[in-house]
Design a protein that fits this description.
Elements lengths: L1 E12 L2 E13 L4 E5 L6 H8 L7 E6 L2 E2 L5 H11 E5 L10 H11 L4 H14 L15 H13 L5 E5 L7 H18 L2 E5 L3 H4 L4 E6 L2 E7 L6
Helix pairs in contact: 3-4, 3-5, 4-5, 5-6
Bound molecules: adenosine-5'-triphosphate and magnesium ion (MG).
Length: 230
């Protein structure tokens, strides 16, 4: 599903180049639920951005679902992001002037799906993330956990093969965090969606099948979680 080979990422700074990832290798199978941990600044978000085609590595190769990302042009990467990847961020990134239904419908509308199909899909996704009755609400009228569920529904709209979540429980209290983890876990187990989730929270990471730990831009640990935990 995901093959990252010798991926390095350097940022040009006034003080010189800064290396955020150094020749990182990671292989992730289809249907795995991966947690990425590591100290602040270790390269977790950088790796996620590269996996999602939001950013290109300085060197190395990233293959996702048979597609070599570095071989795509800008347009190809946009199409890849829209159709294969669902992004979920810590700060939700919902559009404040749009309702829940409109936020979820965005990607579908961008892909010119017919209106009836959009309505059907949005209604299904709202049920799936347990937000019945909130379709016409605005993000500011929702709790943090509810906003994060809208963000997940939006990520699911295009039936992505892969969900990339950057600290999806970071802004939530324990109960809301648990609900989000359960939702991601269910999508992974029941719908076979591969999930890569960055988290600082050991407990959240234990929801995953496998924990990859980064330090200074390199993988320093890659451990399977004990079977039968869940
Ligand atoms: N656009 C950029 N320009 C310059 N340096 C950057 C850029 N993006 C990230 N970095 C640097 O790369 C390193 C890794 O950043 P990254 O955001 O991947 O860390 P992280 O592991 O996600 O940390 P956190 O847990 O704090 O979110 C950091 O030292 C950061 O300052
Ligand atoms: Mg980060």
């Amino acid at each position: 599903m995901i093959r990252v080979e010798k991926v390095s990422k350097e940022f040009a700074l006034e003080a010189g180049n800064f290396t955020a990832l150094r020749e990182t290798d990671v292989t992730i199978g289809k249907g795995e639920f991966i947690a990425v941990m590591g100290p602040s600044g270790s390269g977790k978000s950088t790796l996620l951005q590269i996996l999602g085609g939001l950013d290109l590595p300085t060197s190395g190769s990233v293959e996702i679902d048979g597609v070599r990302l570095e071989r795509l042009d800008e347009k190809g990467r946009t199409l890849f992001r829209r159709t294969k990847v669902g992004f979920v961020f810590q700060n939700y990134q919902l559009l404040p002037m749009m309702t829940v239904a409109e936020n979820i419908a965005l990607a579908l509308a961008a892909n010119r799906a017919p209106k009836a199909e959009i309505d059907r899909t949005v209604a299904r996704l709202i049920r799936e993330v347990n937000l019945e009755g909130k379709a016409s609400s605005y993000p500011s009228q929702l709790s943090g956990g509810q906003q994060q569920r809208v963000a997940i529904a939006r990520a699911l709209a295009m039936k992505p093969a892969l969900i990339l979540a950057d600290e999806p429980t970071g802004n939530l209290d324990r109960q809301n965090g648990e609900d989000i983890l359960k939702l991601l876990s269910r999508l992974n187990k029941e719908e076979g969606i591969t999930v890569v989730m960055v988290t600082h929270d050991r407990h959240a990471a234990e929801t995953a099948d496998r924990i990859i730990t980064l330090r200074d831009g390199a993988v320093v640990e890659d451990a399977m979680e004990g079977a039968g935990r869940k």
